[in-house]
């Protein structure tokens, strides 16, 4: 039993008990909750302060003030939204803009293709991932020759250089000249990583060039659709190809 209840019982007064709120009405907010005097008061004062601030702002406002959102906004289903201006362009202007877009995309695609050719000329596609490995077939007469076959002796090179597909000199060449290029394992590993990075860059550029080609085709298709010629869609547009339309034949004068 609370202290207030005991004090009221001793004085002979009937203690005040607030009615419990039904569970079905808890969703109605602060005014329906049990023992929320402080919450109700804080909420009331907060709303009064907000109203006074809005009234002061309205009184200080210039009645002749104008800004464009006054005429470019409207209420839709109780939500304040800004009207979107309509594009005032003619079909000829739209065609010209599409033509400029095609020229820009085509210019970027040609620049990307030139970079691809430059990378290919530098790499020569040596040890490229995904490339089918070359096969070097040796023909022998007997099984004994197969068992005794030594690829380093047959190629007249050192066993350490057998695994190379390029820069694999013969023993006679090594006796006359020194081996050029990196020979240490750490240096070879670093060069292999750099070569792999270059191949990854080449792959990205090839994919980018293909994507630009598809974009140019899609822009051209949208430009062709501006003509008022009867057309039938033959194939839907995909991520890798534009939509295909069949246009009615029209003789040009």
Automatic annotation (TrEMBL):
Coiled coil segments of this chain: none
Annotated source species: Rynchops niger (Black skimmer)
Name used for this protein in its record: Probable U3 small nucleolar RNA-associated protein 11
Keywords, comma-separated and alphabetical: Nucleus, rRNA processing
Gene Ontology terms: biological process: rRNA processing
Cross-referenced InterPro entries: SSU_processome_Utp11 (IPR007144)
Pfam families recorded: Utp11
Record localization: Nucleus, Nucleolus
Composition-biased stretches (Basic residues): 7-17
Superkingdom of this protein's organism: Eukaryota
Gene Ontology CC: small-subunit processome
């Amino acid at each position: 039993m609370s202290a207030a209840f005991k004090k009221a019982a001793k004085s002979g007064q009937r203690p005040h008990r607030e009615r419990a709120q039904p569970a079905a009405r808890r969703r109605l907010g602060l005014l329906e909750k049990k023992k929320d005097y402080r919450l109700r008061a804080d909420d009331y004062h907060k709303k009064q302060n907000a109203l006074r601030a809005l009234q002061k702002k309205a009184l200080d406002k210039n009645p002749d003030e104008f800004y464009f959102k006054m005429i470019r906004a409207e209420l839709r289903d109780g939500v304040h939204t800004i009207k979107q201006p309509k594009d005032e362009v003619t079909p000829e202007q739209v065609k010209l803009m599409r033509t400029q877009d095609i020229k820009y995309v085509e210019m970027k695609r040609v620049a990307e293709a030139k970079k691809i050719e430059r990378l290919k000329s530098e790499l020569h596609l040596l040890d490229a991932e995904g490339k089918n490995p070359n096969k070097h077939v040796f023909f022998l007469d007997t099984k004994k020759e197969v068992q005794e076959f030594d690829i380093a002796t047959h190629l007249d090179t050192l066993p350490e250089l057998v695994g190379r597909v390029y820069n694999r000199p013969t023993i006679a060449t090594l006796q006359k000249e020194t081996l050029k290029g990196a020979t240490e394992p750490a240096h070879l590993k670093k060069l292999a990583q750099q070569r792999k990075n270059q191949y990854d860059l080449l792959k990205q550029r090839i994919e980018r060039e293909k994507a630009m080609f598809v974009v140019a085709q899609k822009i051209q298709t949208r430009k062709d659709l501006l003509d008022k010629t009867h057309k039938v869609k033959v194939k839907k547009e995909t991520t890798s190809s534009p939509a295909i339309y069949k246009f009615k034949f029209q003789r040009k004068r």
